[in-house]
Amino acid sequence: MKLPARQSSSQKSQQGPLDGLFLPDLCTIRILLLVIVIAELLAFVLALAASRPGQGWQDLGLISLFVQWVALCSVFLLCISRPWLARFGNIQAGFISFAVINVITLLVSELTYSYISLPGLDRSTAGHIDFLLSNVGISVIVSILTLRYFYLQFQSGVSMRAESMSRIEALQARIRPHFLFNSMNIIASLTRSDPKLAEQAVENLSQVFRASLSDVKKKIPLREEISICKSYLQIEALRLGKRLNIDWQVGNDVEHDMIPPLILQPLIENAVIHGIEPLPGGGTISISAKHNNTEQVLVLEVTNPCDELNDDCIAPSKGNQLALNNINARLEALYEGSSHLSVVRNAGQYIATIEIPIAMLSEAAQ
């Protein structure tokens, strides 16, 4: 039996919890193997109850064949009908799935009765009816338990995702750039001396805050995050002048990667406030984004100089640590532990690195 071809990642993202259907994607190898194992365990139990003396292995083989045909045919039909089932509510889809499983059981039972000699099979009319009813009865119990299990798993997933989104929203709400008051003071001072520059500063500030208020469930291309970071840096450049230098190292192949908004900007903000600002002569912040094809991850790295006589260079300040913990918590919630932020302090350099699996960088991965 051949299952339908696997869908692309964008198609697959429309399945499962996102389409509101409690049935999982039954076309996956993992689910298929799980069904085969459970069906075989059921066959083993039935064989123990009905096996004839001295023919246990033969009886197990025949019962296994019967049970696996019922299980695999049910999985196949539910797999190909899943897009259609997704149009209904979970109650209707549950009844339809229940009916499909038990009709298949009835059909396979009828074919088995006609062509296969199972242990203890009664060929009378009463035996025929009893055989069909007993198989359908077992199927009813197993299908109810299975569909109930899928529904509970679905509800648990919905609850976990809702909790995760609430946590991400709370974290996102705390990412309000700390430079607000400095920016407003700069804008106020420029209003009379250089109105055009003040207008540009207001536009840059609005872009950063628009990103901070964006939908936490929506990801943005890396190029947009970089644009937000550049807007922020233009504001800081008005305050720090030539003390602030930026070295961008961004490959063309990463600009379309979809990432959460304001993941990179807080790291750059930390580099400005805790790295460049305390240094009398300022310094250069290096910002790189590249694919590590060996480990199949997107690597975002922010490097800044820091004064080793300054405590912030040796141990993170409370504000710095809050931002880092915030980013780590968002990455943990969004990527379920497969992405992380690491920090290294060495020889007057402060290096913050984010790694995100390339497989999770599409819009569908959100």
Notes on the protein architecture:
The protein is of the alpha+beta class. The protein is 59% helix and 13% strand. It folds into 2 domains: 9-170, no CATH class; 175-365, 2-Layer Sandwich (Heat Shock Protein 90), CATH 3.30.565. It has helices spanning 9-12, 29-50, 56-80, 82-85, 90-115, 125-173, 180-193, 195-212, 222-240, 265-276, 311-314, 318-335; strands at residues 220-221, 244-250, 258-259, 283-292, 297-305, 340-346, 349-357. It has a 5-stranded mixed β-sheet with strand order 2-4-5-7-6, with helices on one face. The two termini are 33 Å apart.
Quick recap of the structure?
The protein has helices at residues 9-12, 29-50, 56-80, 82-85, 90-115, 125-173, 180-193, 195-212, 222-240, 265-276, 311-314, 318-335, and strands spanning 220-221, 244-250, 258-259, 283-292, 297-305, 340-346, 349-357. It is α+β, with helices and mostly antiparallel strands. The protein has 2 domains: 9-170, no CATH class; 175-365, Heat Shock Protein 90, CATH 3.30.565.10.
